[in-house]
What does this fold into?
Amino acid sequence: MQVRPLMVLISLNMCKFCMSFSILLPPRKATILAGRRTAAFHSTTACKLNRFLFRMEEDIQEDRESRLRTITLPQDDYRTLHAAKVLGAQSGDTLRAGLVSCNEHDGLVTDSATIEWCPQGSIKKAQPTRNGDPPGLLKIHLHDLQPAPPTSVPPVSLMLALPRPLQLGRMLPMISQMGVDHVILTESSKVPKDYWGSQLLRQPHLMTDKLLQGLEQAGDVRMPKLTIVRNLCRFLEHDLDRLFPIDEYARVVAHPTRITDPVPAKRLRECKLPNNNVRKILVAVGPEGGWKEPDELELLTSRAFEQITMGTRVLRSDCAVVSLMSLAHDVCSDSRYR
It folds into this structure.
């Protein structure tokens, strides 16, 4: 007989907890843009989209008279699922979209694309179902596409000693989120040879997909250039000056400082930029074990790389890359360093 009151007490407490928890959840918001209802973007652990991006090789239809471009996404496309499950978007809603940069252009953007649901099967209503599933195909009309502004070109490039394949898969979206113009994945004496046989390296389009995820999160349309280097010495001798002219780019190589070093290495903010009008930086980050001392460090410094440090702590590649890219962007944009 004592069990039932206890169960009632627990259920009442659980109800209070659920009520308090539901109050903390942010309500879904909507704004009005050009007479259309605009759904606010929410984050999701599955895929974070702050701009719906499309590639030119996708089936994009263009009306000859209005020049309006429209793309139809299948029901199981991740962008269709995001529009239904995360945004709860209705036909006529407005969202941000864009076309990824390619040989034809440097990226096109719009903040006024509209969506249209096309029900399939037994579903008749052109709206997400009660459980949030898409009702069918999703049409996105790309109104008012404009070239991406030139100021959105990232001033930072990254030369990264090839990390572990799983770690590389996690790092590529972060790298494109931070904003990078050119990514060079290079060999190093401390990079195991079997890393080059990973699936990411054998199927380059997988790396492009990872970079695209970061662009969708950042809302950018400029796909970073990607170069694979199997011979670091040859690259430094034949390709470095062509890709990163010494009169345009500051070249820095990151390496931890030792307490016993007679002369402490510079901080990134202390490096001189060759061109204050167009400030660009190439950051070289070594493998997990660091650049080989003294061979690789001397090789890089002989090619006008300045050695910099973030202190005596030895960081993992992903932590070092995000930290250094943040510092590099800050140096390129802050007028105090001019």
About this structure: Confidence is low (pLDDT under 50) at residues 1-46.
